Input
Amino acid sequence: MDGSHANAASAPAAAGGGEGTQRTLNPYVTGNSVIAMKYKDGVIMACDTGASYGSTLRYKSVERIKAVGKHSLIGGSGEFSDFQEILRYLDELTLSDHMWDDGNSLGPKEIHAYLTRVMYNRRNKFDPLWNSLVLGGVKKGPKGDEKYLGMVNMIGTHFEENHIATGFGNHMAVPILRGEWREDLTFEEAVKLIEKCLLVLLYRDRSSINKFQIAKITTEGSTIYPPYALKTNWGFSAFENPSQGAVGTW
Amino acid sequence: MDASSLMGSSSDAPTSGEHRMGTTIVGVCYNGGVVLAADSRTSTGMYVANRASDKISQLTDNVYVCRSGSAADTQVISDYVRYFLHQHTIQSGQPATVKVASNLVRLLAYQNKSMLQAGMIVGGWDKYEGGQIYSVPLGGTILRQPFAIGGSGSSYLYGLMDHEWRDGMTQEEAEKFVVKVVSLAIARDGASGGVVRTVTINADGVKRSFHPGNKLPLWHEELEPQNSLLDILAAGNPDAMVQ
Output
């Protein structure tokens, strides 16, 4: 088969293993939620550009969505070093694929399947890659251009859906998406819906920052837009003096 | 390895954690009184339970306290202290001094130290000593200081205060300074956020102020907020990275 080998880099028991048994670590530098959904022309994906170090918002210009080959986008939350390692694996994979020079290229479904195997196998060795990954893309298939969106996490759970969110997004964005997503969203409508989710996460997720990146992938290729910030609303009259009627309240 | 830690970043369920005020609190003396300031974020685990809380509570007409740590513990302490000070004011016939108010806070914090997680900054004005700031950290120490910082966000402010603190600021300088300082901490501390509330106390009385999150200055790597990406695109050609 091709030369991809998922576990080339697993240094045996070097860190925290000793006798090669337990190794599950804690994450150190972490990215938070990634949100994605299918829309009329392809798949749109978004996340903030922050990476936290515990409760410190340490890195504020981090790109957590990357293009993979010609047909896919990957978004990663969780331990950032593991995400970077996964990007290296994907580079190897796409390079081998390209060197076949056979006119074929790996589509999003194949990349997702590969990632699922990597994540699940690492999990079985109690040495997980501490991430939740979102994989989206568009590729020509037997029924025309087929949009694909799936996710896989650190324990190997994987599925496909019309809309995905990781981390806190599971609790806060998915309900919004379930209510408002439609098959035929235009790019503008999709951006508005994504921004609604991003704003809720900004208000309610402690680890989020006000700097976002949106990316889309269509048959024409992938586009990752430059980072930008959203306006927040603090103009509720109840916010101005909450303890006026009840001294000592929070 | 329990299930919640395996789920990655959002390990604390939003409903089961205790309400904590991660917080940044600041109190400074200026020439004429004090300014107290705080952020407004209260979280349970990683969920922001209240994004516009009021962490500066009134103890008397002339003394206020900034609260950090457990929301429940600090609320109950300030409720007790308010109650005692009310009686004290009636008995003595004049406003309580800042020193008395701070020491009551200290007594509760010290005598119940094994059960409480409360870091507080008491600030106010009285006719004997003018503007005063007292720090009452975990354990129940009491320290009078020209300025005080507290809460998880204060870690990011020690260097800044060492560098920029000056004695004898004017009221306007002091108010601007505390807003700047709290918003810098908010930029880096995940447990702080929201709006900056300030309370200025001097001989003339008390002034409460509200600085909403979207009016705070922008710091390093922070961008000017927009309504939507669509506005940026409509304004014409940002350098999109097409692959």
Notes: Confidence is low (pLDDT under 50) at residues 1-14 of chain B. Chain B is about 30% helix and 30% strand. The two ends of chain B are 41 Å apart (CA to CA).
